[in-house]
Design brief:
17 helices; two-stranded antiparallel ribbon; globular; 7 strands; three-stranded antiparallel beta sheet
Length: about 425
């Protein structure tokens, strides 16, 4: 019991933020959506994932990518959610929209569960903040501001998997930064799990592993692939063509998404559908090159995290269609990095830009002329502030940050850590 109390006390900032935003997500479902739409908000994408999770739990693999499924990624998150959905179904709760309006009562469980799962990213960010010796006040500010994007992604959009993938990616970077080649295998597993939840994690692989030689990387490659193979193999066996079409082509319907200038380059799939996978492949290849070049020689943790933010920015810039939760990885990493400055000003400016980005992103806008430049301006501002903060406060050498107090932290401050499977969480 003492261990649990000490663990919670050391991570009080993300714990409190998780509780607050789980309540906020529930409040959105019950109050705001009721006032705005005269009915409970059903966060359709989250219910889509919930229905697929129930199918996975019952072994109905052919349903995962079958219409009306909107899934275009490996079902890693759906595997994680499956026990919750199977338990709810076993208890007699209405767990799908096909069961009438009573299914919305299950949203009282689903919304907080999704928020708590997505809030894992707050613990990952806090692990880095503790490693850098951030003061308690800075850690609280980080958790609260970053948590706004968590509840937006998890409840408003119904996509907690992006936050979960980012959490795993940050923990992977932390494992390698602390243990070097000794942490590479753990990082490989974490990155592999992140990719299985959301393939955007591929953008972060190069910055984490660029420092290592090909001999070390050979032992990591299969760890990167295995989790995705495990979660997608059953679907490939029973419905190969449909699964490959969903995961590779990643079809989308332009009138239902926010337009971008690159939408004109999307490949037509017929029947009004277009491929989002083509430009995402271009963004992934560009991010791999950028990550390898920038982190091959300089691979301290601030640089690795900044290059990750840059890679995630390339993804949103080159997207043929945009949704608000796509921006969250950029927001979270830039907030973390701007706190490295001795002044609060970069963080405050980044927080304002992040809130504007969330507000703009939560609109399904179709006017490229006004909306796209505005939301890209917030992204550029956050990246610029993060880069400046890293430059101003960067230690003389990668090892220096292990032995010096960080900004905003008294000389006598101590950092409490607990290692789980070698990972500082």
């Amino acid at each position: 019991m003492h261990r649990v109390s000490a663990w919670l006390d050391a991570r009080s900032a993300p714990v409190v933020a998780t509780v607050l935003f789980a309540i906020a997500g529930l409040g959105y479902a019950l109050l705001w959506a009721t006032l705005a739409h005269r009915g409970w908000h059903s966060y359709s994408d989250l219910w889509n994932s919930a229905g697929l999770s129930l199918s996975i739990g019952h072994g109905h693999w052919s349903a995962v990518y079958a219409p009306p499924s909107q899934l275009d990624a490996p079902p890693g998150f759906e595997f994680l959610l499956a026990p919750v959905m199977v338990a709810g179904h076993a208890l007699g709760l209405a767990t799908t929209s096909a069961e009438g309006t009573s299914y919305k009562a299950f949203g009282l469980i689903l919304a907080p569960v999704a928020t708590v799962m997505a809030a894992s990213v707050l613990f990952a960010l806090d692990a880095v903040a503790r490693r850098w010796g951030y003061s308690e006040v800075r850690r609280v500010a980080l958790s609260l501001v970053a948590g706004l994007g968590v509840v937006s992604a998890a409840v408003f959009w119904g996509h907690p998997e992006d936050c979960i993938a980012l959490a795993l990616v940050v923990w992977a970077a932390l494992a390698v930064d602390r243990d070097g080649v000794g942490g590479l295998h753990r990082a490989g597993w974490l990155l592999g799990l992140a990719i299985a939840c959301q393939p955007l994690a591929l953008l972060a692989v190069a910055p984490v592993v660029a420092r290592f030689g090909w001999r070390e990387l050979r032992g990591v490659a299969w760890r990167l692939a295995l989790p995705t193979v495990v979660v997608i193999l059953p679907e490939l066996i029973v419905a190969r063509a449909r699964t490959l079409h969903a995961v590779i082509d990643q079809p989308y319907f332009p009138p239902g998404e926010s337009s971008t200038p690159f939408g004109h380059f999307a490949r037509s799939l017929g029947n009004g559908m277009y491929s989002g996978g083509t430009l995402r492949l271009v963004a992934t290849l560009a991010a791999v090159v950028v990550g390898y070049v920038l982190c091959r020689r300089r691979h301290d943790l601030p640089t690795v995290l900044f290059v990750m933010a840059l890679a995630f920015s390339l993804r949103v810039v080159l997207e043929s269609e945009l949704l608000g939760f796509y921006f969250y990885p950029v927001i979270a990493l830039c907030l973390l990095l701007t706190l490295r400055s001795r002044s609060w000003s970069p963080f405050a400016a980044c927080a304002v830009a992040s809130v504007l980005c969330v507000v703009l992103g939560n609109r399904r806008a179709h006017d490229v002329v006004l909306w796209w430049p505005a939301i890209m301006a917030t992204t550029v501002a956050m990246i610029g502030l993060a880069h400046a903060a890293c430059r101003w406060s960067h230690p003389a050498s990668p090892g220096d940050e292990e032995h010096r107090p960080m900004v905003g932290t008294p000389q006598t401050a101590t950092v409490t850590r607990r290692k789980v499977a070698g990972i500082d969480v």
